[in-house]
Structures are given as C-alpha cells and as structure tokens.
Amino acid sequence: MRSRFKTVLSMSIASIVLSITLSTGVAFAEIGEPEKDELTFGFIKLTDMAPIAIAYENGYFEDEGLYVTIEAQANWKVLLDGVIDGQLDGAHMLAGQPLAATIGFGTKAHIVTPFSMDLNGNGITVSNAIWEAMKPNIPKQADGQPQHPIKADYLKPVVESYRAEGKPFKMGMVFPVSTHNYELRYWLAAGGLHPGFYAPHKGDISGQIDADVLLSVTPPPQMPATLEAGTIYGYCVGEPWNQQAVFKGIGVPVITDYEIWKNNPEKVFGMTKEFTEKYPNTTIRIVKALLRAAKWLDENDNANRMEAVEILSRSEYVGADAEVIANSMTGTFEYEKGDKREVPDFNVFFRYFATYPYYSDAVWYLSQMRRWGQIAEPKEDAWYDEVARKVYRPDLYAIAAKALIDEGYMTAVDFPDFDSETGYRDPQSEFIDDITFDGRTPNAYLEKFPIGLTDEVL
Q1: Beta strand pairing status for 332-334 and 340-342?
Q2: How high is the pLDDT of residue 46?
C-alpha cells in the first residue's frame, strides 16, 4: 500500500494561505497537507496521458501525500460525466472539454484546468485506397518520397470524385469539442474543403451543414478497425492509433498536427471548479506531481522516453505494443510504410512551457467553436478573454511551480516569468495556411478565413 498523509490544516486556514499566495505572488513553500488524499483520475488510452502514468509510477503523487487510483474510460463523454458527477476527481481531458462545459455546449458544468498536459501528438490518417488516389496529386522530393506537409488540396480531387459518383466522403474524429475535430476541420478548410457547420440553436449538432466532408465521432482505440471496415475513409486521432494503422497495413498517416499548427496545445488536466475550491491544497499537490512527471518525460533530450513507452504499453494504460508507441514517442513518425521521418517534437510534455495554461490557447479553441457554429452567435473579444480566465488557471499553476522551485525540483528557467506573464502568447504564424493567430483579437482572426462563420448566425 502506498503511504498516505492525513489532513492537518483546516479548510479555512488552507484557503487563507492560498488566497495570500494568489494575491501577493509570493511562493508559500509549505503548502498544507491534502484535504482529500484518496483520489481517482480518469484517462483515455492515448500516449498523451503519460504525465498521469509517470506521476503514479515514479511516486510523485505519493510524495505529495496523494493515494491515487487511475482508471481508463470508455470515451470522452463518459470521462467528462465522471468528473462532473464526482466519480472522478480529475482527468486527462480534451482541451475543448472544460471550455465547452463551462459555456454550456453539451453538458453544462464549470470545469477548470491548472495544467496543460502536452503539445502536438495527433495525426490524420487515410485508408490505403484514398492514399493511392491522393498520391498522383502530391509533389515528390528528390528521392521520390512525398513532399511534406501534405495538404488537403491533394485530397480535394478525391472528395470531388466521390461527390460526382453520389458517394458521401466520411471521416472520423474523437469528439465534437476535441482538438482532433478542430485540427481536421482546419486542415480540410485550408485545402478548400468545407467540413460543415453546427447549429445547436436549431437543434442540429451533427456538424455536417454545408459539408463537403462528413465528420463523425469514433472513440480513439476504435479508429483503425472503423477505417478497416470502410465505415470511414480517414480520421484524426492521437497516438498510437495513427501508427497502429501503419503497422496493420490498413492506412497511411498523411500529416501530423505539428505540421498543421506547430507546437499546438493538446490535452489538459481537468477538475471541477468546486473541487479546486473545496480542496485547494490537494489541487496544488496534484499539479506539482504532474509537473514533475512532465519534466521527467522531456529531460535530457527525451532520455526517459523508452522507459515511458514500456509503462504506457501495459494493459492498464494504453495497452498497445511498445513498438507501436515508440514509433512516435521517441522522436520519429512513420507515414507510409517504411517512410519514417524525424519529428523530434511530435510529443512535447514540458519544454516550450508546454504545461502552462495560456489564456490564448483557450481563446483559440473558443474561436474554432465559433468558426464552426458550436458557439451560435458572434461574441465580443472581451467575452473570449472572460471565458478563458474562468477555465484556465495559471494562478494555481504558479503556486505549484514556485513550491517545486523552493523544494529544488525545478528552477525558475523551467517556467515563464510569473511577474510579467500575461497568459497570452505572442502572435503565432506557424499554421499550415500561414494565417496568424493573436489570442487578443479573436474576431479579427476569424475574419481571415475564407471558410467559416464570422459575424453571421446560421
């Protein structure tokens, strides 16, 4: 049995300590003992749940006096519902889930995140038949291999040929407010293919209004089988389910999300706002353990990644062959069988301040919800900032980070400058369509897209 500590500070004292820390910005080295020490966390079988597994396996949760049980969930909706109803104390979540829940798209609940779990980590895969139809359209390198990044421009003639034959072109993503949905839509639209609108105010949550490509939900581990069955012709998913298609010989990953948006934020760790207020010391200690795990995953130029691969391959975590997981976790990515290329930042867990919950990351997700109609009406720029601040909690993150610096586990250079950090990244331009995103001006950003909503209502 892992050791457990009992609560020694009352809620009132703990709350005072944290409020003083938040208001002054001064690190309080001795965070009180956890108010709740027995916890259950949920996750989906994807490699980017790694910080939770490593925090458990390396004893970082135990170091914080937390006795944690980790449980795989059937799908993202079950996971979210588990957090909302209290069966789960926190979970590995899609970045869009806390935002969507807080604004009431789908299940209404105030979910917050004090910790971003990773950057990048997804890919778009098409069936062998679609790949063969795309290949004549794709420019070649000097060695005869396809030139990357492979844009949706090269898929467009294939989709048009299906339409001419009266066949709908179907692709899969993992959840309506998933990064995968927005990345797949972004890629398609950048290539002139309309991925469809939502109209929740009219009762239409299919996301297929005016669509050239029909997108539907498939849980991540089921993606390869669904592709093989011919139910969908391609999908966007996290690892290891793109590489699994390569190993099974049933599909070809055509692009990674690193190539769609370099160093894009991916998953977050989500909890209810109520949990963070009722158990403030526990919340900070969870973040501390996850931060140590994230640093371990990236330190010494990813020297620990093969050990992480072995852990993740176990049935209680991802449960895929270690060889499949290692294909992306160790700095490479295999596209067409035998076409393995260096992608050292395919999975990033700590460097580039990957764990910091930037408001601008939240705004990007909200902008895509508006672009495709999940947010039915136009909103002022101030609204985006307000929602971002309700959900993303760099204040809680900073307390955990400063405690780790005081304890010698981290140094100040591991984190943004907390005294000057605004929560907004500098404008980002490394997107596949070269459109620059500035989180401070989301409406101006939306107006740059030829496909998508701006100030109109469907």
Answers
A1: antiparallel
A2: 94
pLDDT for the residue numbered 16: 37
The Cα–Cα gap between 238 and 48 comes to 8
Contact 279, 34 (CB under 8 A): yes
Residue whose entry in the numeric block shows the structure tokens 């209810």:
272
Residue 151 main-chain phi, psi, to 5 deg: -90, 160
The answer to whether 221 and 75 are in contact (CB under 8 A) is no
Q: Please return the burial class of 321, using the count of CB atoms within 10 Å of its CB with bins 0-12, 13-18 and 19+.
A: middle
- Report which secondary-structure segment, H or E, holds 91: strand 90-94
- Main-chain phi, psi angles of 112, to 5 degrees: -125, 160
- Spatial distance between the Cα atoms of 363 and 100, rounded to a whole number of angstroms: 12
Cβ pair 71, 41 in contact under 8 A: yes
Q: How far apart are CA 158 and CA 153, in angstroms?
A: 10
Tell me 428's DSSP state.
B
Q: Where do the H-state alpha helices sit in 139-255?
A: 156-164, 179-190, 223-228, 241-248
- Residues contacting 386, CB < 8 A, separation 6+: none
Domains (range + CATH), the chain = 11-120+265-334+344-414 (3.40.190.10), 122-264+434-446 (3.40.190.10)
pLDDT of residue 30: 75
The pLDDT score that the predictor gives to residue 434 is: 97
Contacts of residue 153, defined as CB under 8 A and 6 or more positions apart, other chains included, come to 137, 191, 192
Task: Tell me how far apart the alpha carbons of residues 240 and 108 are, in angstroms, rounded to a whole number.
Answer: 31
Residue 70 burial (10 A CB sphere; 0-12, 13-18, 19+): buried
| Residue 51 CA to its chain's centroid (Å) | 13
157-182 residues labelled b (16+ CB within 10 A) or e (exposed): ebbeebeeeeeebbbbbbbbbbbbbb
Q: What parts of the chain have a pLDDT lower than 70?
A: 1-29
